[in-house]
Amino acid sequence: xxxxxxxxxxxxxxxxxxxxxxxxxxxxxxxxxxxxxxxxxxxxxxxxxxxxxxxxxxxxxxxxxxxxxxxxxxxxxxxxxxxxxxxxxxxxxxxxxxxxxxxxxxxxxxxxxxxxxxxxxxxxxxxxxxxxxxxxxxxxxxxxxxxxxxxxxxxxxxxxxxxxxxxxxxxxxxxxxxxxxxxxxxxxxxxxxxxxxxxxxxxxxxxxxxxxxxxxxxxxxxxxxxxxxxxxxxxxxxxxxxxxxxxxxxxxxxxxxxxxxxxxxxxxxxxxxxxxxxxxxxxxxxxxxxxxxxxxxxxxxxxxxxxxxxxxxxxxxxxxxxxxxx
Length: 326
Prior knowledge:
This protein is α+β, with helices and mostly antiparallel strands. It has helices at 60-72, 90-95, 119-130, 162-173, 191-197, 215-231; strands at 4-6, 9-11, 15-25, 31-40, 43-51, 79-85, 137-143, 151-155, 176-180, 202-207, 252-258, 263-267, 274-275, 280-285, 291-296, 301-305, 311-312, 317-324.
């Protein structure tokens, strides 16, 4: 391995260092660094980008990175390198928000960004130019609320190139894996999309819950990342199955259900349960508990998530379902 230059770091083989991917400034002039950890292995191998904290309330991925870089991944035995960013958006973290408070944008849908744009656009561009372009594999860690299954999202494995590679790595992670298609090149997109168009295999991880660092989520995330690293021959060892989480096997598509009425959501189907097309899986009710709308499942498959909050407005996401793909 050669020295690896990322952000303000220049890390020699066999070393691990902490630094900053880049620096931005608050309205009071205080500097805000994007925390960066680089592990440059003693042996040759791929470079893995590992990020968390894109949204301020999604914290378990941060715990995953901490445990990996502190306890699990040793530079002396590592083949390749790990570029880890535990808090990709410190502004949304300090605000406790999904969006960047300063400009109201969602970092997740702002890539590849703009070096002359708003705060979120500049942050996306920094990650894209200084991080993603230097990686051979990209894993982005997120969190859903407690009323969701843990799962990974990858691109269509029918793609014989980068899509299939990313899908195989997502399967190695060991959770329920859902696949879809990337957004076209040249539009504002997420990390997975821009990585795909650079020819870099990638996938997204949804742990649960958010607003706290969950020991179970950290355990699942650490095991999953280590499985990916083993499959890439970056570290030695056998791939370990996930434990204490429900996993739906097979190739799966995803359907997003939305509400026509607004009100409180009353789930009547458990996460991971087998469901049939046309089945009533829950209800939207008013403040008296009277039914305003039945939530009808549109596919034969399984229950993946309920909404982020227990109330919805017209057109809001009310459930996610997965179904078997041929």
